[in-house]
What does this fold into?
Amino acid sequence: MEATELNHPASADSIEQLTSLNKALADSLRLLILRLLKSESFGVLELSRILDVRQSALSHHLKILANANLVSTRREGNSIFYRRVFVTGEDPYRSIKESVFDLIDDLPLAAQSQKKIKQIQLERAQLSLNFFNRNADKFREQQGLIVAHGDYAPSLHDVIAGLDLTPAATVMEVGPGEGQLLLELANRFDRITALDNSREMLDKSRQAIVGAGFDNVQFVLGDTAIANKRGLACDLIVFDMVMHHISSPAKTFKDCAAMLHQGGYLLLIDLCTHDQDWVRESCGDLWLGFDEADLNRWADEASLSPGQNSFLALRNGFQIQIRGYQKNS
It folds into this structure.
């Protein structure tokens, strides 16, 4: 009876999959790759730099991990980015994967690896910053190639109203651009922070606020890491078509969680995943939109709970998502 069961095609297939999984995990470099992909997505060349491993050898290891369903791929234009798989309840090897992930996630990364990761993130951020410094005068025109603020403003207003924040709430907008949403926030709330790592773009939003006669907005040059170090605290942080310009969304979620008061909200307006690579050069995008699973995973790791969301179809085949997250009490 037992021999018959083992010879059954379904049983043989399961044994083969289990063997493949255990072989994939029986290698220190592959375990290190999985550790690096805990929250971040990296391309092959980036992983080669971090691990100091030849690209051909690294591609071989990544193929083994992919065949064992331990990593998944995502195309970002001409580049392939790898991330760790999301373990679902339907995965027959869920307990094995979760146990391994929990164990390797407790392992500290070598200082040299952390240094290389930081350098890669800085290079990504510089690419985006260079774009905005070159195109500050054409920002609205460039952004309009994808979406105009008015296309989703009514839905966004409804979402913000649904948060039931009082006028006394402290609000931060990251990357306010030319100040369209910032003006609306300044009219609704008493204390606003405009945060941008581009001096040129920050000046644009300042001109809009001053021109409208508001005096309740402070302007901070830098990113969420700098704002967090300065001890800024908020009830609401808004990213309006900005997250796809940020080098490390996972780290940004954690920065925001640290700045939010208990019960505070992170509000994200961004594109769903798409394959239109032309936006990199034309609009300075680092990421081609985001999957719901990625956003929810980063939120969960930052102790933020998903709340209300909305989806809108736009011209040129893009779809926008409005997502709210709340800091767990």
Remarks:
- DSSP finds 15 helices and ten strands in the chain.
- Strands lie at 42-43, 71-76, 79-84, 170-174, 191-196, 217-221, 234-240, 260-271, 304-313, 319-327.
- The CA atoms of residues 48 and 58 lie 7 Å apart.
- The mean pLDDT is 87.
